[in-house]
Design brief:
The complex is a heterodimer of chains A (about 400) and B (about 425). Chain A has about 400 residues and is α+β, with helices and mostly antiparallel strands. Chain A is built from twelve helices and twelve strands. In chain A, a hairpin with a 2-residue loop joins strand 8 and strand 9. Chain B is α+β, with helices and mostly antiparallel strands and about 425 residues long. The longest helix of chain B is centred in the C-terminal third of the chain and has 37 residues. Classes of the chains: A alpha+beta (about 400), B alpha+beta (about 425). Chains A and B meet through helix 2, strand 12 and helix 9 of A and helix 2, strand 2, helix 8, helix 11 and helix 13 of B.
Chain lengths: ~400, ~425
């Protein structure tokens, strides 16, 4: 294939070629940045919470007023829930992974340390919490029943022992010696009695939580406020039935309460990642439309060129050019334009990403994305040009002999 | 003449339906995507009370000291302590001011058939309602004497009034909140500012509370804070300990109608902070800030990054669609060079050719705009389905959006048509006639 005649033909149609190249460049820049964002969001959403999500559900229990016998009511409720058929275990807490709201505090190694080593979420829990969540204890021990105390919203408390996640343990004691060590939470010392493999914080999709997504700490407390959460784990396959049974049971025990936000963990997860998922879907739709518009644009312009050059093509065919040569002509033309567009597009894509890095705290784009985007856009060009090129190739040589 | 051009344009568009269709679809898709995101973005970055937002101010007082400050040296406190709020209320340095926080109740309806239910509430001073231009359907706010007398009064929202009293005036009746009867003094009309300008700390979007109780009553009754609470140091136990702690959990707004009052208020804040330094509470030089509501919404990142990214991507897409349309129009106009040549030879001047092409692009733009409008409607339904429900309350097209969409499409099409039109006017009549 001779490139020179293609280039000289293109020179007579500079603007058309430039428009296609520009369109491909912009498509490439938008496409690979969008795909990069989509991929990042999907990676966020794919992280495990550390909870047996298939079998756990949560509900918020809000008492009417603030009863004096809160702890007795809470303990009674839990005993009743645990004795229901199909229930594996249950506990009460101030928050749970992916909830979106909860407690956090700095972790220190000495009293009145000015800057904490890291932050962690605080979950109030009892000896049933690990079994309910399905969290795996990898070192040390669970809470014992006699360690469980109470705490209210506004008073600091000193837990004798705590259970931490491996992520938190490794952060505070990078040499892996966390078990049995003393740390300071809320300015008071406590001992790490157990380490669980994984348990995410309540904040998985905001800037606040991104800094410590798996730093969780369980304190052996029942939380004495009028609104708190019950977390319940059902036997496999019995979640729906257990959800109904638990609500009925709680209302049977005492009607002076409201049960709100009764949610399976699938719902909790969907809620937590709703905007990430939404962003990924919308970007996906826009990218598809973008590819379609660009492809049809190429089809439209190339068809026009074919129509414009019908006679010349006829002449070439009459002079001995094969159908294949005509097809190759238009495809090569497209490759040249697309390559120019891709080169510009790679620069645009990287520029756009760098700008987003500074304005949205986004990560640097992986060059693999940009390069595969470039390949994709060039393939798109070849695909789009195929139909008009085939039409061109089917122009009969006899056309040359006819008067225009 | 204009009507003739429109007629010509329609004929020409019909003659080449594929090219025409591609152009209209490209512009329609571009407009649909960008208008969907623009509608969302406009709603998110909107100002629900433009007449007041420049006069409502949020003070910041650094009560934690240099160790806790942002890297930029700005105070990290987005709320205030009870101590500071009390002092600011007592100072009464603005014509209107209010402290407030988010709380909630279980409402037990008087009708035993109805189940108790949970409702979010706001503890605030009576000035709140006038400061934020809150409309009343029945009754009024509890007034300064309600703040002072600490009586169990309440203002309820329209929805709650509909639910409990079937929409009739409930002034003077009581509502049972957490086992205590509160006398209703006011019922709001429909009110749902988006963003929730008065409190963008917890939820920036979503419904306003349905219950408003006097701040003083809420403090007396130890009503729990349902919003954020940030402590930099440990506090003494119990409610009293919480009130006297350095925990920040209260919002504060001051209405300052002119620059002189703003200046005076800044001075008052600084002298208050120095006083706290003198009496030993702060061990650092005063650091205070005073931002108006608009600045505050920007500082608090009310518009999430997601929405900015989508807006950018969608306008990038619109731009691609326009480049696409330029190419297609160029093809179309150049494709009828011969015809243009004949028209020019028959006496049409460049201006006439220019007008004809521009009218044609305008018609394409209009068609693309209408398609884009339909797609925007669909897009918003889609966005509502996939985004947070609080955000989806923002996805309504108003008249401005409709006009904007059509205008944007026509302007975009005409812009895209300028170069192809110019090329068309450059057609030499003699050349074209000779070639034929």
């Amino acid at each position: 294939m001779h490139i020179r005649p293609i280039l000289s033909a293109m020179r007579r149609n500079k603007v058309g070629a430039f428009l296609i190249a520009l369109q491909m460049a912009l498509t490439l820049a938008i496409l690979c940045n969008s795909l990069f964002i989509i991929e990042q969001r999907l990676a966020l959403m794919a992280r495990a919470s550390g909870v047996d999500e298939d079998n756990v559900f949560v509900l918020t229990n809000q008492w009417v007023g603030t009863p004096d016998d809160l702890n007795a009511r809470l303990v009674g409720d839990l005993a009743a829930i645990r004795s229901l058929p199909g229930v594996v275990d249950a506990y009460a807490s101030n928050s749970y992974p992916l909830r979106g709201g909860g407690w956090s505090d700095g972790v220190m190694l000495a009293l009145h340390q000015v800057h904490p080593i890291t932050h962690t979420t605080l979950y109030f829990a009892d000896e049933h919490a690990l079994n309910t969540l399905g969290a795996k204890l990898i070192a040390g021990r669970n809470f014992s029943p006699d360690e469980i105390g109470t705490r209210d919203r506004n008073s600091p408390a000193q837990p004798p022992v705590v259970i931490v996640t491996k992520a938190l343990a490794d952060k505070v004691f990078p040499d892996g010696s966390a078990l049995g060590k003393t740390i300071y939470i809320e300015d008071s010392p406590t001992i790490i009695a157990g380490i669980v493999e994984k348990l995410q914080t309540p904040w998985v999709s905001n800037n606040f939580g991104e800094k410590f997504p798996e730093n969780s700490l369980l304190e052996p407390f029942h939380y004495m406020v009028s609104g708190y959460h019950y977390v319940v784990r059902a036997q496999p396959g019995q979640l729906d039935a257990v959800m109904k049974a638990v609500q009925n049971k709680l209302l049977e025990i005492n009607r002076a309460r409201v049960l709100v936000k009764v949610m399976t963990y699938a719902e909790v997860r969907a809620e937590a990642y709703r905007n990430s998922r939404g962003l990924a879907i919308i970007l996906g739709v826009v990218c598809t439309a973008l590819l379609a518009v660009t492809a049809f644009g190429i089809v439209g312009l190339t068809s026009f060129w074919v129509t414009q050059r019908r006679r010349q093509i006829g002449v070439r065919r009459a002079l001995g050019a094969t159908r294949h040569a005509i097809l190759a002509y238009f495809q090569t033309e497209n490759v040249i334009i697309a390559a120019a567009g891709a080169a510009l597009g790679v620069a645009l894509a990287v520029g756009l990403n760098l700008w987003m890095v500074t304005s949205f705290e986004m990560l640097r784009i992986d060059p693999v994305y940009v390069l595969s985007g470039a390949v994709a856009v060039m393939l798109l060009g070849q695909f789009a040009v195929l139909w008009p090129a085939l039409r061109a190739a089917s122009i009969p040589p006899a056309l040359a002999t006819r008067a225009a | 003449m204009f009507r003739y051009y429109v007629w010509l344009a329609l004929r020409s568009l019909r003659r080449n339906p594929v090219l025409t269709g591609l152009m209209i679809v490209a512009i329609g898709l571009g407009i649909g995507a960008s208008m969907t995101m623009l509608t969302l973005f406009r709603a998110m970055s909107g100002d629900p009370i433009p007449q007041k937002s420049a006069q409502l101010f949020v003070p910041q007082i650094d009560n934690w000291g240099p160790d806790q400050r942002e890297k930029s040296g700005e105070p990290p406190q987005t709320m205030l302590t009870y101590t500071d709020v009390e002092a600011l209320m007592r100072a009464h340095a603005a014509p209107r001011q209010t402290a407030m926080y988010a709380t909630g109740f279980v409402i037990t309806p008087s009708d035993p058939q109805q189940q108790p239910f949970q409702a979010e509430a706001r503890a605030t001073y009576s000035d709140f309602f006038e400061m934020f231009d809150v409309p009343f359907k029945y009754g009024s706010a509890w007034g300064a004497q309600g703040d002072d007398s600490r009586s169990d009064v309440v203002v309820i929202g329209k929805k709650l009034n509909d639910k409990l009293f079937g929409g009739a005036s409930s002034i003077g009746k009581t509502v049972n909140l957490d086992n205590r009867d509160y006398r209703i003094v006011g019922v709001l009309d429909d009110w749902s500012p988006q963003p929730r300008i008065y409190d963008v700390m917890d939820e920036s979007f979503g419904d306003a509370e349905e219950i408003f109780v006097p701040f003083t009553v809420a403090i007396d009754r130890h009503l729990d804070n349902w919003g954020n609470n940030n402590c930099a140091s440990l506090s003494d136990p119990g409610w009293e300990g919480h009130l006297h702690s350095e925990c920040i959990w209260l919002q504060f707004w001051a209405e300052l109608p002119d620059a002189a009052q703003v200046q005076r208020y800044r001075g008052m804040l600084d002298s208050y902070a120095s006083e706290q330094q003198h009496n030993g509470r702060f061990h650092w030089a005063p650091l205070t800030r005073l931002h108006n509501a608009r600045e505050w919404m920007v500082l608090q990142h009310v518009v999430p990054d997601e929405s900015r990214i989508l807006l950018m991507v969608s306008f990038g897409f619109l731009f691609v669609c326009l480049v696409n349309a330029v190419g297609l129009m160029l093809a179309k106009f150049m494709g009828r060079s011969a015809e243009t040549g004949v028209r020019r030879a028959l006496g049409a001047n460049r201006r006439a050719v220019f007008m004809q092409c521009m009218v044609e692009t305008g018609v394409i733009g209009l068609a693309g705009g209408l398609l884009g409008l339909a797609l925007t409607g669909l897009g918003l339904i889609g966005v509502r389905a996939v985004l947070d429900k609080d955000m989806s309350s923002l996805t309504h097209l108003d008249l401005v959006d409709v006009v904007l969409a059509v205008l944007l499409a026509v302007v975009a099409a005409v812009l895209a048509g300028i170069y192809p039109t110019w090329r068309a006017t450059q057609v030499q009549p003699a050349w074209q006639l000779k070639a034929n």
